[in-house]
Amino acid sequence: MKQLEYRHVTAARGSLLFLKGGAHAALGERVSIRDKEGTIRNGQVIRTSEKMVLVQVFESTNNLDIENTWVRYLDTPFELALSPDMLGRVFNGIGEPRDSRPPIVSSVVRSVNGAPVNPAARAYPREFIQTGISTIDGLNSLIRGQKLPIFSGSGLPHNRLAAQIVRQAKLPDDASNFVIVFAAMGVSHSDTHFFQSEFESSGVLRNVVMFTNLANDPPMERLILPRTALTAAEYLAYELDHHVLVVITDMTNYAEALREVATEKGDVPSRKGYPGYLYSDLAEIYERAGRIQNRHGSITLIPILSMPSDDITHPIPDLTGYITEGQIVLSRELNSMSIYPPVNVPPSLSRLMKDGIGRDYTRDDHPRVASQLYSSYTRALEARNLASIIGSEELSQRDQSFIKFANAFENQFIQQGEDEERSIIETLDLSWELLSRLPPEELSRVTEEDIQKYHSWDSSLG
Amino acid sequence: MGKVIEVNGPLVTIQLPNIRNGEQVRIGKLGLMGEVINLREANALVQVYESTDSLQPGEHVEGLGKPLSVELGPGLLGQIFDGIQRPLKKIMELSGEQVIRGLSVAALDREQLWHFVPSANIVSGENLHGGDILGTVQETETIQHRILVPPGSQGEIIKHAPEGDYAVEEVLAHLKDAQGRVHELKMYHEWPVRTPRPYHSRTQSEQPLITGQRILDTFFPLLKGGKAAIPGPFGAGKTMVQQQIARWANADIVLYVGCGERGNELVDILETFPQLTDPHSGHPLMERTFLVANTSNMPVVAREASIYVGVTMAEYFRDQGYDVVMVADSTSRWAEALREVAGRLGQMPVEEGYPAYLASRLAAFYERAGSINTLSGDTGSVTLIGAVSPPGGDFSEPVTSHTKEIIRTFWALSKPLADARHYPAISWIESFSGYESRAKQWWADHIDPSWSHRRKQALSLLTQADELERIVNLVGPEALSSTQRWVLESANLIKDGLLQQSALDEIDSYCAPEKQFAMLEIILRFHEMGQELITLGTPVEQLTQLPDNSKIRRMKSTFGNDQSEQLQEFGNNLWEKLDKIRAEYASTSEIAR
Ligand SMILES: Nc1ncnc2c1ncn2[C@@H]1O[C@H](COP(=O)(O)OP(=O)(O)OP(=O)(O)O)[C@@H](O)[C@H]1O
Ligand SMILES: [Mg+2]
């Protein structure tokens, strides 16, 4: 009965198709929709009752007419066929090939929605990943199994930063490479091409699975794409024992697609028209990162999102920050000073850093140095701010030395080459070199032993 | 037998004759658990605690005849439960790393035997009432579980079990009530989570909850049985403060409710607490701790339930005469779950999509905190500490603003402080405690009579400094007098030396009340002596350039809690040094005169 085709559309609006009930459609069931020309569209049941079924159509309902639309209920949720052959391939949001090669055939098939991981089954991520980037390794370390987004804005070099992370990320004493899952939603062809050639030139292309939905592809497909990509990542991590690095860009396009459907459905909006369930919906995606007990692989997730009008309190970055384990925030100001990577240090954070650095992982002084750099740099920013109000001549000697410190910090520590790879020890040594511009009594976040060991106070620099 | 009419996300419309509001139901082939929240003509609306994916209209539904309840008995401690009290470690054994839907697993292990020792008054013919202690079980090394007669049961003992090993389902006593009905008492009983458990009477608590965190204990104290909120933007440190409290608070039992937050934060506790020692009992911390977890990717409706499941278990230990602390991270996620269901019910949203009853639900939840006389004549308390996650960090949003009206201690986290990695990033300007006047007695009796006075002085220095900083930002530091500059310096000393306290510092993670006061005293005295020197003509620079400034900033991690003598000694050396400077200036000012 399930494989019957029904012609029972009662209304169509935006991406929503209203059908007569009675076919016992299951929530989340996949449907295929055939129009007059015989073209097939994909949809998903998002509400179902005896009287009415509501289907969300990924390709929109444009050009559908009520009389000539046939619907088939496929009796399964959206599923992805999984095999090692996925590596090196490109797919769309529902896992169909985009690289003119045959579809994946496999007996391993999983629902893309996954199921929530039992928190008691997780393993706490603790292994430091060296990205070679000082602002990340030194101040906001990435840990294997972490979800650490990049908060960016249009025109900022988030793609270049993500590509650099992908190229350089490794465990300090481990040669095994990451397998990469790359998911693109609503990004331009040139951005996708950038990543593709990056992967190619760094020779990792054979270890990459790409899922892409470009700017001119159907927007509703973006709602399923990250789930498809993470289903592939889970397979690679937990069944094939790979350490997987997932890059998803741009989550803002995802959230906008979600808002569009929510508005069409008439869901009660909370802030800026986004539905109240945006938090839980994003969490279903982000929480799929992590480590699991007794499984060898891991999923490290780097979502990229552009903050509308650079506003970090906008619901998309805000809710993301409430779910992820920190964030790397990019700064338009640093970017306009030609500082790459323009990492805005104060609002950036890695929550898993505290358990993955220090004596057993990087170097004993690492946590204290990071805290000290934060403290000194924010103090310096205050001084710089004060200088802009009252003029720098009015500042105390101390404040002026802080401003000099900030300039050096931005130009030497934050700033680095796009293919410059600094070891964590190099980053820490550089930190001390900069801190040595400040008098020891200003450094209360480090210990006296640290100062004796690493600090070479040179008052002529300060 | 009824059936499913409609599936709309977590909300399912069913048809089931005679179903009651609040009753639990099992739905469909998978046996999903849900709770009736609304009756409409022939239909009932059910909120389902599990994902409704793949559910179809027409699937069958069965009523369970009781509201959402929890099992209360030995075997709770050390465990982690989901939002409807299913034991997650057991579920992992049964279904692997993902939570399979429709599993029905009892909260308490049915196989495990507990050594039960009856109370002395358990003899046939004796009368027992709800809340009386039938006997005890040593649940963990730290906690003796008192087996309670369920509230509502009473009667004469007609049969009772001797000391021995029993499983929770075994009957330990039979009571016959006035109507001749016989009640079977087991080691556990059930209680509906939305009904507060009864007690004899409320008492006024005078005991501060000592957390070892200076800005909490010394500046914005909380009492046992009190209610507190920790609002703050993402990454400001709500979870860390709550974990610090769970670690160090001088409570008997700690319940950590992870409500709509990260899975890794719960694992963190599960992995680290068994290795940590409870500073008060000397036993592993996990022995007094248990968790409720509905992580952000787990079903939303169970998130709403998790808070009630938690507080009911907390009340149960309170009724045994214990001081219980429940931390809930985050109450905003609970409120959002409420909003989600209200929205789907088509209820009128009043503010930011929240239903009109948000404030009253919040108030009713916090009302379950308190210090009480138990039914058996003991005393116990439930302290509630809720994190609040305001969108965009805006404290004027509904959940924060309503919560602020209800609680008595408000630990406001500040983004600028967190950005400077000044932790705990609790703002000394926005935070408040309505319990100070009661806490001060304890501090006076146990630590020092001048505590309240010294605390006020420190706070006043901080407010003065804030004012002065505003001036500096307008006209520059030159506008300040020496005395004013010294106030700024001293306030910075308070901020860096006292308020800032890293949870990750081995020595400073927990600061005993004695040490808290000793540090406060040293900093204030340093300020006062400096002030005096400045009036005598000492330049401020001479004082700020003393290497002792950074020693004071580091004393928190230099001197352990058991090194009060060394700390004293450190102070004495400092006073000697300042006395010398004074002598110099006193003589010069003498000459000048
Ligand atoms: N008392 C503290 N000592 C040391 N570090 C801290 C402290 N408080 C917070 N931090 C640091 O700040 C990070 C963020 O803190 P936390 O996770 O508690 O924030 P939160 O307010 O709970 O955020 P969210 O709302 O997103 O859950 C921590 O991972 C830790 O690195
Ligand atoms: Mg938190």
Structural description of this entry:
The complex is a heterodimer of chains A (about 450) and B (about 600). Chain A is of the alpha/beta class and about 450 residues long. Helices cover about 30% and strands about 20% of the residues of chain A. Chain A folds into 3 domains: about 60 residues, Thrombin, subunit H (Beta Barrel), CATH 2.40.10; about 280 residues, Rossmann fold, CATH 3.40.50.12240; about 90 residues, no CATH class. In chain A, the strands form 4 sheets. In chain A, strands 9, 11, 14, 15, 16, 17, 18, 19, 20 and 21 form a 10-stranded mixed sheet that branches. A 7-stranded antiparallel sheet of chain A has the order 1-7-4-5-6-3-2, covered by helices on one side. In chain A, helix 6 packs across helix 7, helix 10 packs across helix 11 and helix 10 crosses helix 12. The mean pLDDT of chain A is about 95. With about 600 residues, chain B is α+β, with helices and mostly antiparallel strands. Chain B has 4 domains: about 90 residues, Elongation Factor Tu (Ef-tu), domain 3 (Beta Barrel), CATH 2.40.30.20; about 70 residues, RNA polymerase II/Efflux pump adaptor protein, barrel-sandwich hybrid domain (OB fold (Dihydrolipoamide Acetyltransferase, E2P), Beta Barrel); about 220 residues, Rossmann fold (3-Layer(aba) Sandwich), CATH 3.40.50.300; about 140 residues, Orthogonal Bundle (Bovine Mitochondrial F1-ATPase, ATP Synthase Beta Chain, Chain D, domain3), CATH 1.10.1140. Chain B contains 16 helices and 28 strands. In chain B, strand 1 and strand 2 form a beta hairpin. The mean pLDDT of chain B is about 95. Strand 5 of chain A pairs antiparallel with strand 1 of chain B. Bound molecules: adenosine-5'-triphosphate and magnesium ion. Adenosine-5'-triphosphate (ATP) sits at the interface of chains B and A.
